UniProtKB/TrEMBL annotation:
Pfam families given in the database record: Cyclophil_like2 (PF18050)
Domain Cyclophilin-like span(s) in chain numbering: 60-169
Keyword field contains rRNA-binding: no
Official protein name in the record: Cyclophilin-like fold protein
InterPro entries documented for this protein: Cyclophilin-like, Cyclophilin-like_dom_sf
UniProt KW keywords: Signal
Biased composition (Low complexity): 34-49
Disordered: annotated span: 28-53
Positions of transmembrane segments: none
Amino acid sequence: MRPMITGLVVLATAVTAVAGLTACASTTDSAENSAPPASPTAQPATSQPGQEGPFTQIRLRIGASEATARLYDNATARDFASLIPVTITLHDLGGREKAGPLPRELADGAGQSSYRTGQLGYWPPTNDLAIYYRDDGFTIPDPGIVMIGEIDTGLDAITDADGNGTLTITAA
């Protein structure tokens, strides 16, 4: 009779241990499954893909009109920020953007063939800053435009500026 009692005690101990482990695993799984999944690619809705904060705020002034913008956190945008304050002469390009030469070349960045209204871009071949005010489906040729920021308020100040205007950019 003694071996049967010992066997039952061992069996009861094993069942209790397995039940305890299962309960712990269920609690851990439930806690992990109830938490919202972390998204390493979550970004502000208005940011350029791959660009996350912090943003540098800037002010763009043409005559008496003013716009505010923020720069993306990328090497080209940081290099552009090192130029501020800067004044450039703008010209209208294709009825979609105002562009003007920067005083020097900026750090390399990944160019792209598309843009959104309100974005600021850097055109490496001529060291131009471009401010897009109308999307007409134009595809930017190689090497592409390096997006460095976007207008938050006052895009109409850029849009309404005469063909050739002086743009002063300062920290906000």
